[in-house]
């Protein structure tokens, strides 16, 4: 049997909604995301199926592709098979997913205020509120608000990316801005379609999380707040990359 050639990736010019308006650009700067956050779509040329093995193989091709690496400004990994890639769920279709944060007014109040807390630093991130503390402190007393299954949802990872931000991220008093940016980023990076069986809208793309540590040159410094995600849409032949290295303040 002839060997199937590796896919190739061509960058696509996209006008992403999450960074389109002046307000959005100001918020990305406020949260220290604008200097290093990259979201790029690529056209996939090559065979790709929807089965988990094929999708994982495509992800490995993405992280080692010269065009993708050049677009991200990273070195090509010598051993891409050693890079840990985790599959994420992509089932959330509305922002009610975040209503649990208002449970007992512990993290976000019923008036949308984010609860403040004492200053703490976790792996280079200084936090001053309970939302960011919940997301970066592995021993947070609020860590059980989201179930383990919910924490594996792609939109939860997008929330964490937005809320944690960069090392000089300025906090928000209200949750609204963070939620709206998470929603916009999520919509820009997943694909939806109407199911022929149910007639309901479903997410048809698959999301993956690339290990922020590892032994690869994908990040200049190892840090748990490094972010690298791949969203694959096999039907359209599109790969969307979300890449955000964490640059410590000191």
If you had to describe this structure to a student in words, what would you say it looks like?
The structure is a single chain. Helix 6 crosses helix 7. The radius of gyration is 18 Å and the shape is globular. It folds into two domains: 9-90 and 207-239, no CATH class; 95-189, no CATH class. The termini are far apart. 26% of the residues lie in helices and 22% in strands. With 250 residues, the chain is of the alpha+beta class. A hairpin with a 6-residue loop joins strand 6 and strand 7. Strands 1-2-10-9-8-3 form a six-stranded antiparallel sheet, covered by helices on one side.
State the shape: globular
* Total helical elements: 7
> If you compute it from the alpha carbons, what radius of gyration comes out, rounded to the nearest whole angstrom?
18 Å
For the biggest sheet, the summary is: 6 strands, antiparallel
Give average pLDDT, whole number. 91
Helical amount:
25-40%
How are the strands of the biggest sheet laid out side by side? 1-2-10-9-8-3
Based on helices, strands and strand pairing, what is the structural class?
alpha+beta
Distance between the ends: 54 Å
Keywords: Cell projection, Cytoplasm, Cytoskeleton
Organism: Triparma laevis f. longispina
Main location: cytoplasm
Protein name: Cilia- and flagella-associated protein 300
């Amino acid at each position: 049997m002839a060997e199937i050639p590796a896919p190739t990736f061509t960058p696509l010019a996209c006008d992403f909604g999450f960074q389109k308006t002046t307000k959005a650009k100001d918020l990305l700067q406020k949260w220290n995301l604008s200097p290093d956050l990259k979201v790029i779509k690529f056209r996939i040329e090559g065979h790709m199926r929807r089965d988990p093995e094929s999708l994982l193989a495509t992800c490995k091709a993405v992280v080692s592709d010269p065009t993708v690496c050049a677009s991200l400004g990273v070195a090509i990994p010598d051993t891409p098979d050693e890079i840990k890639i985790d599959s994420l769920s992509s089932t959330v279709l509305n922002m009610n997913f975040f209503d649990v944060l208002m449970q007992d007014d512990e993290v976000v109040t019923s008036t949308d205020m984010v609860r403040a807390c004492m200053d703490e630093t976790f792996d280079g991130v200084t936090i001053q509120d309970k939302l960011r503390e919940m997301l970066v402190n592995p021993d947070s007393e609020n860590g059980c608000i989201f179930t383990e299954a919910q924490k594996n949802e792609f939109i939860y990872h997008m929330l964490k990316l937005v809320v944690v931000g960069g090392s000089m991220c300025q906090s928000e008093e209200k949750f609204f801005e963070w939620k709206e940016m998470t929603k916009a980023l999520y919509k820009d990076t997943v694909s939806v379609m109407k199911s022929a069986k149910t007639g309901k809208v479903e997410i048809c793309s698959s999301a993956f999380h690339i290990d922020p540590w590892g032994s690869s040159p994908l990040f200049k410094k190892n840090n748990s707040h490094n972010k690298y995600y791949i969203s694959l849409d096999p039907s359209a032949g599109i790969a969307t990359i979300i890449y955000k290295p964490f640059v410590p303040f000191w």
